[in-house]
Amino acid sequence: MRRKRLGGQSPLGHAIEASPPIHGHGGSILIAMPFDPTNSHDVIVASHSGPLFGEVVVPGAKNSVLKLMAATLLADGTYRLTNVPVIDDVDIMADLLEALGLRITKIAAPRGEVGQHLEIVNSGAIRPVAPFELADRIRASVNVVGPLLGRFGEIDIALPGGDDFGGRPIDMHLRGLEAMGAVFDVTSDGIVGRCQRLRGADIEFDFPSVGATENMLMASVVAEGTTTLRNAAREPEIVDLCEMLKKMGCRIEGVGTSNLVIHGVLPSTLQSVTHCVVTDRVQAATYVAAVAMCGGSIRIERAVAEHMGMMLSRFTDMGISFQIDPAGIVATAPQRLSSIDVATLPYPGVATDYKPLVVAMLSIAQGVGIVTENLYPGRFRYVEELRKLGADISIDGHHAVVRGVDHLRGASVVAPDIRAGAALVVAGLAAQGMTEISDVFHIDRGYDDIVGRLAGLGASVTRIRPEN
Predict the structure, then answer these.
(1) Fewer CB within 10 A of the terminal residue: the chain, N end or C end?
(2) 116-122 sheet: strands from edge to edge
(3) Are 324 and 445 in the same domain?
């Protein structure tokens, strides 16, 4: 089998120039341009907090559940997802999937559980055309492309929205599908594409893209023949997707490694399943950052230390101590954090989603730390917001040089994206005075009641809705 090497992104994730239009046979994947969401005027008010104590239970991962929801397009039946976070992105994804023809019911989690359950019914009556106003609002909308093209051979969908922090091209998604037989027509309005049944291919990614790996997985499980994905991403959330697909009857080898071998099956042979969403490792790290900046000792229930290995190691270098058991971790803050140098890398390296938290922590650490962003060099917009709190940070290309100060001071700041917004909330808890964080709709997209969970640890934080 001839190997197809996929580009579309530099080895460090930089955007490249879009490929020329590829004219097909009049099919139908439609991807258009996004707009900025403005769906909430709430603000989070964080005040200087003393040491944090107690226990926080972390729900399922946003970066997993959205792809698991998309996977239910592959086969008819009734699915149940448990440990689902109560976040806006789940609601938006549910709206998108319902527009495609699924029926989704949200069920409160039983006593002793967190989050919610989703019951997803796929009756087979799928219309692979998604309204622009839905697909535009969420990055994960691109993940319906693989399963819908794989099963139905056509799809119309807007260009995925979500956070905007630099080049996040989908070239590798589309080129991977082209290697399997899909044909696309790229126009000024978007991308149109279709296929007959996809065919297995030997594909090598230039860069281990999480989204492209997920899309190719969901396309190849129902393709004809065998697909090999080389240099695939291997994040815990991808393993979670593979485990659900295998429960459904998909044939996947090499789970957890960078080389995946998928033997395609007919969609009619797959079955619906019940699946528990893997814990959100970034939310877990957020509460580590909170106790590290405020002081104290907290237990983070359901945190999976194995999934946070490199980040926990770097947290330890900063002076945080951990006690780890199968049910969670206990994080204890030092008297003062120590500065470190850290660089973002694909898993098992330090994920880019951790970086805003690390920069916030370094802002009050002893010494000077350098944070290098290798994946999304434009993801430093939140630095100006931290500077409003008194942080001493300078940007040099894709490096942030952070000189620790004795204390931060409260100010009004704006959350530019999900993880940066959470980092600003945590920084506000450590700042003297009061910090007001606006544009919290970003935080709502990825955090399940961050205010309530922090308040439960003793943090001085509340959410308000301005009268005007």
Answers:
(1) C
(2) 103-108, 116-122, 77-84, 274-276
(3) yes
355 & 215 share domain: no
Determine, yes or no, domain membership for 382. yes
pLDDT band at 427; cut points 50, 70, 90:
very high
CB of 130 within 8 A of CB of 154? Answer: no
Written as one letter, the residue type at 185 is D
pLDDT digits (tens, 9 = 90+) for 275-300: 999 999 999 999 999 999 999 999 99
pLDDT band at 467 (very low <50, low <70, confident <90, very high): confident
Give the residue from 132, 445, 47, 108 showing the smallest Cα distance to 283. 445
Q: How far apart are CA 173 and CA 377, in angstroms?
A: 21
Domain boundary among 254, 276, 298: 276
Sorted by sequence, the CB contacts under 8 Å of residue 108 that are 6+ apart come out as: 116, 117
Residue of 76, 74, 81, 120 whose CA lies nearest to 98: 120
Q: What is the pLDDT of residues 387-423, one digit of tens each?
A: 999 999 999 999 999 999 999 999 999 999 999 999 9
Q: Which of 231, 251, 276 represents a domain boundary (last residue)?
A: 276
pLDDT digits 0-9 by tens, 217-237: 999 999 999 999 999 999 999
Q: Does residue 56 belong to any structural domain of this protein?
A: no
Q: Where are the beta strands (DSSP E) in 240-352?
A: 251-253, 259-263, 274-276, 296-301, 321-325, 328-332, 342-343
pLDDT value for 185: 73
CATH of the domain at 326: 3.65.10.10
Q: Report the C-alpha gap between 38 and 356 in whole angstroms.
A: 22
The pLDDT score that the predictor gives to residue 40 is 63
- Residue 58 within a domain: no
Do the Cβ atoms of 395 and 383 come closer than 8 Å?
yes
| Six-digit token string for 437 | 């964080």
Q: Which residue has the higher pLDDT, 459 or 20?
A: 459
Q: Note the pLDDT tens digit of each residue in 21-80.
A: 222 223 333 333 233 344 468 999 999 999 999 999 999 999 999 999 999 999 999 999
The two structure tokens encoding residue 267: 């969609």
Secondary structure (3-state) at 204: strand
- 192 and 219 in a single domain? The answer is yes
Angle at 95 between CA 185 and CA 122, to 5 degrees: 85
Please report the pLDDT score of residue 69 as a whole number.
98
pTM to 2 decimal places: 0.90
**Angstrom distances, CA of residue 41 to CA of 417, 442, 445:** 15, 11, 14
Q: How far is CA 98 from CA 53, 72, 92, 129, 157, in A?
A: 41, 12, 10, 11, 14
In a domain, 21, yes or no: yes
Domain encompassing residue 14: 3-38+63-276
Angle at 210 between CA 316 and CA 361, to 5 degrees: 30
Active site residues: 163
